[in-house]
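2024-03-11 09:14:02 INFO receiving multi-entity request
2024-03-11 09:14:02 INFO entity count = two
2024-03-11 09:14:03 INFO echoing inputs for audit
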Amino acid sequence: GAGVSQTPSNKVTEKGKYVELRCDPISGHTALYWYRQSLGQGPEFLIYFQGTGAADDSGLPNDRFFAVRPEGSVSTLKIQRTERGDSAVYLCASSPTSGRASPNNEQFFGPGTRLTVL
Amino acid sequence: EDQVTQSPEALRLQEGESSSLNCSYTVSGLRGLFWYRQDPGKGPEFLFTLYSAGEEKEKERLKATLTKKESFLHITAPKPEDSATYLCAVQVTGNTPLVFGKGTRLSVIA
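2024-03-11 09:21:47 INFO inference complete, emitting structure
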């Protein structure tokens, strides 16, 4: 079946602009995660959704970052007043579990969106 | 604070030269330890999940093992197509976000 998809694959914007990054999780996956990966680093957690609600947004760096998942499927990460330091690859992952501990809780990643803020 | 440290940062092997990658972790409680492979310009690709000390899993030339403080990814007779960054991550409870290490960049030379 189809994996996690993310659009756009690349986004170049100017400092101060607003951007939206989209994630389509694997069908039926209830958990959705956003991570950010800088060059030479591992992915760092931003926010986690269980269904439509944000279960944990402790990784969002500041209030310029916001994410939604209104129907429990597609999610959008929104960044206001972008800064050069926001440049990174933004990764989305989904997992099939519904909040109960399960051996089958692997997270499957999309290809990422490379954001460049000039 | 939950932490994951991977070593070495980079590893260069000749084709057929077996070796191991290390992932040491400090966590409040381990639900699972994950290994991912990441190719340049791609998202991480799931390899293994390990849940308890002593557990081992294998896939082709890769074998992952787990102790109470670290995990090893053993690569037997690697081929150039095994070249990638290998990421280790831990999960503290059932559905929480993963905490990643910085990865090991593996290069296998023919």
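2024-03-11 09:21:48 INFO post-check: Chain A has a mean pLDDT of 92.
2024-03-11 09:21:48 INFO post-check: Chain A has no helices and eleven strands.
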